[in-house]
Structure formats: structure tokens, C-alpha cells
Amino acid sequence: MPELPEVEVVRRGLESWVAGRTVAAAEVLHPRAVRRNAGDLPAQLKGRTPASAERRGKYLWLPLRDGGPAEGPGEEEPGEALVAHLGMSGQLLVVDPLSPIEKHLRVRMGFTDGGPELRFVDQRTFGHLLVAPMTSGPARPVPEPIAHIAPDPLEAAFDDERFAERLRLRRTGIKRALLDQSLISGVGNIYADEALWRARLHWARPTETLTRPKIAELLAEVRAVMTEALEQGGTSFDSLYVNVNGESGYFDRSLAVYGRRDEPCRRCGTPIRREAFMNRSSYSCPKCQPRPRNARP
Ligand SMILES: [Zn+2]
Fold first, then answer.
1. Residue 153 C-alpha to ligand 1 middle, in angstroms?
2. Given a cut of 90, is residue 72 above it in pLDDT?
């Protein structure tokens, strides 16, 4: 499952390779890839121009302008966007139009400039594309299917004070809260474990017992771990290729706790423990992150 840093790498690729180019034709090769789309995707995209590439958490979208590239400031805000959900295995590739068809190609999109085309490849077909109306959210315009998702901690729209307030009212375990997309988006299992280890917090710590400074420290660690992953992922992106492969492989060597059961804590040497958590696992250090008496799973 791609996490925020991986999706941000894809967004940057789309921003440089796709934004500002007008769609000549789109083709849907598998109906499941557009199962949530209300209209005829090729007709909705033809002649329109992605204005930019945007992201919130793990969600990507391209605001669509009618007609060609912008002629100047003051142009109307795009009313619709092409939204991409990558699912478990979705990839967005920017490739030469003549390059061979990928085995799991679901949607392809050519541009009027005859340059590289955009291909959506998805082996497990959990991902999908759809055209959706934009809504003017409280902080910035987002597509309607994403309107219920809270800003992610790397967005300018993220409000630290409001997050701290809502977090304490939630009265749940801190890791459960970090994974709650209505409170904070884009923090997956891996980065939650890493940030909690850095902040020396056990995952079942009740949120109402966290002080404001501790919440600020945790947010800083969430941002640090994501930014580091982004820097490592970003360096490998230098070719005509936008890719999410569903793994965060490039960051594996830097992980302090995730997937390191029984290996020594990088801070104190205590073997890392693995505990069951919401049908998944939580990795932590028993010494640096002692279980609180009032643990709340
Ligand atoms: Zn430790």
C-alpha cells in the first residue's frame, strides 16, 4: 500500500510531465478501473487540460480546465478534477506512446502535443480513476470524494492547534487516532510506528492524556519521518517515469521499528516488540515506549 511520501513522488512526476498538456484521447481498457465514475471517462477528458497535480494524504487529483493551457491569471477555477485512487498496486506511468502495452494496463491518455502518454496500470484492480466536481473546502478546493478527508500534516492547510484540540477530545489510543483519516490524513501503519518511536509514545496511550507540547513533538516527528522518506524516494525520480509500486522499499533501511521484531532498538538496544493491532501489527520498543497503565487499544 503506497503511503504519503510515495504518493507525493508520483504527484511531483505528474506535475512536471502532465500538467498544462491537453488531452487528445483517453481509452479505458478495463471497466473496473472506472467503476466509480459517473460518466464516460474518455468523453469527459477529451480536449481538457490538467491544470496542476494535487495531493491530500494518499489521494491524488488533476484539476481539469476546459480547453488548452491557461492564458493568464484571473481564469476561472476548475470545476472538475480527475481523481486517482492507486489502491494496493496502482501505478501511473508516463511513457512514450509507442512503448509496448503493459500487461495490466487499465486506462491510457494521449495528449495533443503527441508527447509521452499517461498510463494507469493496476494488477489487482483495487485502484480506480474518476472525474468528480470540485468543492470549495474550508482551507482549499478539493474534489468531492475527498471532502471528508482531513488535511495531511505536510499540507499548508493543516491546522496544528485544531488537530491537538480534536485529538484530545477523541479519547482513543494515539495510534488509532493517527490512522483516522477524518482527523489527520496520509499517516499509514509504517509512519505511525516510526513517529511514535521517535516521540517515545506507546501506541495505546490515551489521547486525552497528551499535553500540547507532547502533541506538537509528535507532529514534528510525523513530519520529519515523512520528509526523510520523501527525500530518499525523490532522489530516485529523475527519468520519464512516474511510479508507485505499492511498496515503500526505498525507505526500508532507515526504519527504526517497523518490521524489526526482536532486533535491537536503535536507541537503547532492547529487542523491538511486535503486538497485534487492528488486524495488523504495531512495532515498538518496550523500554523507550512503555505501555501506559490506562492503555486504550
Ligand atoms: Zn529503546
1. 26
2. no
